[in-house]
Write a structure and sequence with these properties.
mainly alpha
Amino acid sequence: MQSLFEPFLNFDLSVFEWVQTIQGGFLDKLLVLITTLGEKGIIFILIGLVLLCTKKYRKAGVAILAAMLVMGIGNNLILKTIFARPRPFNLDPVEYAWWHEIYKFPELVSRPTSFSFPSGHTSSAFAAAIALLWYDKKFGIPLTLFAAVMGFSRIYVEVHYCTDVLFGVLVGVIYAIIGVLIVNKLYPIIMPKVEAKIGAIKEKRKSAKSE
């Protein structure tokens, strides 16, 4: 499937060449930190769990977790397997000798072993951000801006092509919409029962304390 991406290689390489002109110093530390925060989508799962614990933002929390679940299936089990795009540093050195003459991996982070397309960090970031934005702009907008920086950080550390990140944004938005649709369909059915159960547990604890 690598041949599918060949028309974009010159574009991706030109983006890397530009990125290399701004690498260094504070940006290295900042963007390496941000890219590390996105590992396995844990930070976005935690955000979903925190929101789940609040009544006001519970629906948004469930939507984030649903979107992350859809992302995990869509990216890791389907898209990455289908396209099997090598990472920028793993392009065949013989077939793509011209690429390796120009491209040099900066070694800012360790080399991932999974396939490159699409960017999982970007997909998970936008899945969570758009799901939250759907219900609450106050927190959704900052998280969306953070998601954009997350996507750029993957290009900056050069573990993803720019096209990986751009497609990651697209599918991330799709995952968020699917998550929201699932929640809007199931939440009115499931959550009243869950909240009733939580209320019963709280009442039982109150009764035990008063005895």
